[in-house]
Amino acid sequence: MSEIINNRQEKLKELILKLHDGANLEAVKAEFKEHFESVSTAEISAMERSLVEEGMAPAEIQRLCDVHASLFEGSIEQIHHTSKPEHTPGHPVYTFRLENIKIKKLIEREILPLLETDFARDELFALIGRLLEIDKHYARKENVVFPYMEKHGITAPPKVMWGVDDEIRNDLKGLLRFSQKWTQEELVKNVIAATKKVLDMISKEENILFPMILDTFSEAEWATIFAQSKEFETSWVVNPPAYLPQLVIEEKEESIIQSGSVPLSAGALTYEETNAIFNTVPFDMTFVGADDKVKFFTQGKERVFSRPLSVIGREVKNCHPPQSVHIVEKIVEDLRSGKKEHEDFWINFKGMFVHIRYYAVRNEKGEYLGTLEVTQDIAPIRALDGEKRLMDE
């Protein structure tokens, strides 16, 4: 079986290399049909990765990727999913596809028809400006989806696709930057060329990228991708609903058991790294859980207030002098109820100017998890003046 797969890969590479050497597309298509009824997106990915590993620059593959798409057109196996999770609003692919629908409508129903009229340039530029929203679509794909592809060993397609994305960005920006120098005929020609690249990229995403990643990523990975996508804006799609938050939790718990690290909303840390970071930050932190008991505090080198280990598990009201207990209880209650999200105090203490901040800690659902106290001597910060742009010797 592996020999058959290898032979298919070698034949695919042979055909692609012929195209790169200038062979006639129709002749190569005919040869392709002699050997293949269809190819899978995984085979295309493996073929491109193999070419890169053998020394072909991703930019060279990128240069002729439209020709490659023409070769495979109509022959790519569509991957069927029985549950179709990508049809669920909030799934990252659902959002990407919704954006693609809006992009395509903007081009085919507004931009291209306008070019057939005696249009005003300002009207066209306004539409191109709207089309530039596509940058958000590409940024999310490149910064959230591509890293997961690479984790699965799919390395060449992201490099090639990112390069084409950048070409599209530059072309669209160029339409706005240089179009005043062009004649009406030149402007129309360049707009048609730029929008064709956008439509071709939609085709690549729909027919190659999305089937590939849907066949590769786990549901837990999709949930994590959704969570990370919130760092990036969506193009024309506002606030997609949450997708499978429970699977994010399950994935984290499994990862903790397997790797000894704790996956966080941005990255993952081992126990040693977590402890060292908490004890390095230039301020003290103490966390009181929702049950009003102390669960954690940092142990930096220069603490403002002493915290013995015996304080862990103690009710917070018992950690303060009786005359100030009512203040502590009021702070916690205001944070718990949502009346306030933080409370600040500042005092002079042992030659320090101490800033004490209390924050409500909530989960993604807005549920109260506890109170975080952050204490810092800000006297050195208050004394700062002017600017410091160079390192100390």
Task: Describe the protein in words.
The protein is of the alpha+beta class. The chain has four domains: 71 residues; 159 residues, Up-down Bundle (Four Helix Bundle (Hemerythrin (Met), subunit A)); 33 residues, no CATH class; 102 residues, PAS domain (Beta-Lactamase, 2-Layer Sandwich). It contains 15 helices and seven strands. A five-stranded antiparallel beta sheet has the order 4-3-7-6-5. α1 crosses α3 and α2 crosses α5. The protein is elongated. The protein starts with a helix and ends in an 11-residue tail after the last helix.
Keywords:
elongated, five-stranded antiparallel beta sheet, alpha+beta, Four Helix Bundle (Hemerythrin (Met), subunit A), 15 helices, two-stranded antiparallel ribbon, 393 residues
CA radius of gyration is: 29 Å
Strand/helix succession: HHHHHHHHHHHHEEHEEHEEEH
The largest β sheet comes out as:
5 strands, antiparallel
Task: Give the number of domains.
Answer: 4
Envelope shape: elongated
What is the CATH class of the largest domain? Mainly Alpha
How would you write the strand order of the largest sheet? 4-3-7-6-5
* Count of extended strands: 7
Strand content: 5-15%
